[in-house]
């Protein structure tokens, strides 16, 4: 059995950052993110690499909802423009989902909730509102009902509600995997990020839901290089960029080699917006081409979460 790798990329745009006051990691009219998706899709078509794109459901819309009355915490929708894609392309992006659907590779389009809620921190009623909206919106858009969920910030949803909505597989933080823990302090976290430490462990079925494990911080892009339009943390800027670039490339190829040696599994991910700059992209391209070559020599296979779910059951 060759090793297996899954790639997931979050299409969340404004929804993933507005609640944290970080809209400026995005380009003003998402030109950078729109072209970042195009070049990623073009590359995936060329080298036949499928990606699990997880999408904030509201992005599929081209008009605002009639009502945002949903039991979310006070102010949740205050900074969301009630307009449409022309005026607020960071909150409405049906064109991007069409681009993914039009690609020649069969990418998976699944869910990242409807409004980027932290699933463990909202009431069951609010979570059901989110999933009701997701299912309806996917249907109206002509997409299959999603069976894969990537919970925002890895905040774990109650499994009972997932089963109600036929969600079968969830990307999970490595802390849920046997033998793995998260960093307990900032220094350890910085070291984890710099060394690209990743869980190398097979997906497993827990409470009838398949869990696939990954790092809390993005791994396809490096937080120490550049986060979308924003500079990395000053701690990382103290290291010359050429050194950081080399480090990220090496971290990625090393973790892949280890997974291959162990006949195991890794899940590599990022946000679309994090890839939308000239620092991260050349390294992503180089790495995906490397993965494609390893697959050509049967050293690994690439699976979407949907495919992984089928194989794990
Ligand atoms: Zn997110």
From TrEMBL:
Some GO term, biological process aspect, for this entry: which one? carbohydrate metabolic process
Going by the entry's taxonomy, the superkingdom of the source organism is recorded as: Archaea
One GO MF term attached to the UniProt entry: hydrolase activity, acting on carbon-nitrogen (but not peptide) bonds
One Pfam family cited in the UniProt record for this chain: Polysacc_deac_1
- All copies of the NodB homology domain together span 35-153
Q: Which InterPro entries match?
A: Glyco_hydro/deAcase_b/a-brl (IPR011330), NODB_dom (IPR002509)
Q: What name appears for this protein in its UniProt entry?
A: Polysaccharide deacetylase family protein
Species of origin reads Halobacterium bonnevillei
């Amino acid at each position: 059995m060759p090793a297996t790798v899954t790639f997931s990329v979050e299409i969340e745009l404004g929804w993933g950052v507005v609640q944290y006051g970080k809209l400026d990691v995005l380009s003003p009219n998402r030109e950078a993110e729109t072209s970042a998706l195009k070049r990623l899709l073009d590359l995936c078509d060329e080298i036949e690499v499928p990606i699990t794109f997880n999408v904030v459901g509201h992005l599929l819309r081209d008009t605002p909802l009639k009502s945002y009355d949903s039991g979310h915490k006070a102010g949740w929708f205050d900074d969301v423009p009630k307009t449409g894609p022309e005026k607020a392309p960071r909150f409405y992006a049906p064109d991007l989902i069409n681009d993914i659907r039009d690609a020649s590779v069969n990418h998976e389009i699944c869910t990242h909730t409807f409004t980027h809620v932290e699933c463990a921190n909202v009431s069951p009623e609010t979570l059901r509102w989110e999933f009701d909206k997701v299912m309806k919106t996917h249907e109206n858009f002509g997409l299959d009902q999603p069976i894969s969920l990537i919970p925002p910030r890895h905040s774990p949803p109650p499994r009972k509600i997932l089963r109600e909505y036929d969600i079968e597989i969830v990307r999970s933080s490595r802390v849920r995997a046997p033998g793995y823990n998260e960093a307990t302090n900032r220094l350890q976290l910085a070291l984890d990020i710099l060394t690209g430490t990743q869980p190398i462990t097979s997906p497993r079925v827990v409470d009838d839901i398949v869990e696939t494990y990954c790092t809390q911080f993005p791994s396809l892009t490096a937080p120490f290089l550049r986060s979308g339009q924003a500079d990395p943390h000053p701690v990382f800027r103290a290291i010359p960029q050429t050194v950081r670039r080399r480090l990220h490339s090496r971290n990625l190829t090393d973790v892949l080699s280890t997974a291959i040696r162990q006949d195991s599994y890794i899940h590599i991910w990022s946000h679309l917006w994090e890839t939308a700059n000239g620092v991260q992209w050349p390294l992503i391209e180089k790495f995906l081409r490397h993965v494609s070559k390893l697959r050509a020599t049967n050293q690994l296979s690439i699976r979407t979460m949907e495919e992984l779910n089928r194989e794990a059951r």
